[in-house]
Design brief:
Length: 405
Amino acid sequence: MCIISYHTCPISDEGMEVGGMNIYVLELSKQLSRQGYVIDIYTRSQSAKSPRIVEVQKNLRVIHLPAGPEKYLSPKSLKVFIPEFLKSYYKFIDEENLSYDILNCHYYLSGIVGFEIKKKFKIPMLMTFHTLALMKNLVARGSEEKETMERIKAEQVLVGVTDVMIATSESDATYLETLYNCPRQKIHVLTPGINFDLFYPIKKSLAKKQIGASEKHKIILFVGRIEPLKGVDVLLYSIKILLQKNPNSKLCLWIVGGNVTSEIKEWSKELQKLEELRRVLNISTSVKFVGRKEQKDLPYYYAAAEVVAMPSHYESFGLTALEAMACGTPVITTDATGVSDIFDKKHHSLITSANNPLMLASKIEELLIDKEKYAKISKEVRENVSDMSWENVAEKFALLCEHCQ
């Protein structure tokens, strides 16, 4: 099987684009290779120091191909290097005498690459966008956040030429059908999974000690990339509201994500906006910018938190919610996230609306006040995701591969 992850390397922990898609590609590939698939993942080289071929495990390799400068570049600047990437790909498979019977592409840029490979070798192609340009533009707050018409048109073409469209949630499946005119029979929902060897309940006192948090603090946690559509500013407003109503509550917000190792003036534009808002709202002592953390550290942050908040304006799924729930930590998310689809009726109290700090604050407060309800929900959210292993996801994906061959 050939997997294309053109714009981001699934085994990288550097760069702005590390997130749920990298985890999705890597964890799914690991499980498929354990089930007998021989998999090569092709990605654009972002460092001349990176080995061209990385053996991840038996039957699974990541291959870095030169295409443009070997450094991190914004996805919006990468389309021009696709011909060079294809040239490197054809050269590599020719030298190695390789052929593939399945092509799996992630993100629209990989789809553009994959379509050329599909035409040349006549092999079936499975496509996952992970995010949709039309939906991102719907919630964009400025022109700099908007996706290009070029990307929208590329996605529209790709839904027509791919053999199987994979949506990560029921809501994104509906958007593909209604906004992109994709035939419903071509769309299959494959939600992300959970690595239960990594994410499981940890005693709160132990987790707090591990991350250097005070036993007294009640941590509201955000984990994710720091970008406007994540709604972190809404969360800051909510924390201000909660602190104003409960000044002695020891409530605090920890924000995991972004690069905060340098001086504030060198932070990303969005991080600087959030820092300014933190000062304007006078909640600096109650809000901590933790910075980016490796996957192996995240279980301690989830377990140390009272609640994980996902205030996104749009999220095709929201993998951090699954990880937190596997650790037994309740998640409050907006109805604009794909993961909200898996919440049953009795847990609708954990769903808020986007861009509504009053409602989000109310949901957090309601959960923290009732200790009996909190303990019950903590147990239930863990049980609700108990069957969502990457092994199960891989088995469903394998059936899709058989379907399109």
